[in-house]
Design brief:
This protein is an alpha/beta fold. The protein has two domains: about 170 residues, D-Maltodextrin-Binding Protein, domain 2 (3-Layer(aba) Sandwich), CATH 3.40.190.10; about 90 residues, D-Maltodextrin-Binding Protein, domain 2 (3-Layer(aba) Sandwich). The protein has 15 helices and ten strands. It has a five-stranded mixed β-sheet. Strands 3-10-4 form a three-stranded antiparallel β-sheet, with helices on both faces. Helix 2 packs across helix 15 and helix 4 packs across helix 5. The longest helix is centred in the first third of the chain and has 17 residues. It is globular, with a radius of gyration of 20 Å.
Length: about 300
């Protein structure tokens, strides 16, 4: 008889299978994405880029699910490519320990994905959606804050607000304390949405974020430089099946044209336009590609 955990796992697998099932597609390329705004935007972006620069037809399976759903779909051939993050590949898929050197992390995932799975990482797109520490603009000016080392010097005068997980993760607050010697006047645990409200109303002075979060713009927050490179890198890049690249070799150059084209600030802005301004992901993605000269008007 199934226990509850086994039943939940079975239901997840059934739902994932159902999401991927269909009558069969006549499209040349199937692009997937994870189930959050940024990844959907990137899925749209590479889909449009392929459609506008080749005669290939693209099927979108965006908002598909989490990392494991997309990765297994890629391995099984239900997807040809999707965008992932180097730190996620290193830790969630390869089950390796945290490494802070971004070039080394990319080299490891590139080599291991090819050897173990027959998958190739394309050129990183430029931005790094890793953990970040943010303060209000007035706080940054008052204390002349530009880096996390600057923050450490005045941390005993400030209040940190973060979600509970950040206080427990080795790549969160414990590691920050060890690396930078931070010792805040007070720390508060709160829900992710509430911490932005709290820093906006000055109930807290400092919070954790993800570097490309659109709410950093909404609340006019300043991201401090991680000058000791404590946080692990999460550089985004398309991951593609090798048999797809062998069949359509033109894809490699097209996808690599996005290499180093998206800054943290540009990805922040795109996330903001979708999440805060209500714009359509496809519209935001297309506008960005036009702006960068990667497709025509």
């Amino acid at each position: 008889m199934f226990n509850k955990k086994a039943l939940v796992i079975l239901m997840i697998l059934v739902l994932a299978t159902t999401a991927l099932a269909g009558c069969g597609s006549s499209a040349d390329i199937t692009v997937g994405s994870k189930n959050f705004t940024e990844n959907i935007l990137l899925g749209e972006m590479i889909s449009i880029l392929i459609e506008e620069n080749t005669d290939l037809t693209v099927e979108r399976k965006l908002n598909l699910g989490g990392t494991l759903v997309n990765f297994e779909a890629l391995r099984n051939g239900d997807l040809d490519l999707y965008v992932d993050y180097t730190g996620t590949g290193l830790m969630a898929i390869l089950d390796m320990d945290v490494i802070n050197d971004p070039d080394l992390v990319y080299d490891i995932v590139q080599e291991e994905y090819m050897e173990q799975f027959g998958l190739k990482w394309m050129a990183p797109m430029g931005f790094n959606n890793t953990y970040a520490i943010a303060v209000r603009e007035d706080t940054a000016k008052q204390y002349s804050l530009e880096t996390l080392s600057d923050l450490a010097l005045v941390s005993d005068e400030l209040v940190l607000g973060s979600h509970q997980e950040f206080y427990n993760r080795p790549d969160g607050y414990p590691g920050l304390q060890e690396t930078y010697g931070m010792n805040f006047k007070d720390t508060k645990a709160m829900e992710i949405g509430l911490k932005y409200q709290a820093i906006g109303t000055k109930d807290i002075d400092v919070t954790d974020a993800f570097a490309t979060d659109g709410r950093l713009i909404s609340y006019n927050l300043v991201v401090l430089e991680d000058d000791k490179q404590f946080f692990p890198p999460y550089h985004a890049a398309p991951v593609v099946r090798m048999d797809t690249l062998e069949e359509y070799p033109e894809l490699e150059g097209i996808l690599n044209s996005l290499g180093n084209m998206i800054s943290d600030e540009e990805m922040q802005q795109m996330n903001y336009l979708v999440e805060e301004e209500g714009m359509d992901e496809a519209k935001v993605a297309r506008d960005f590609l036009v702006q960068k000269g990667l497709i025509g008007q």
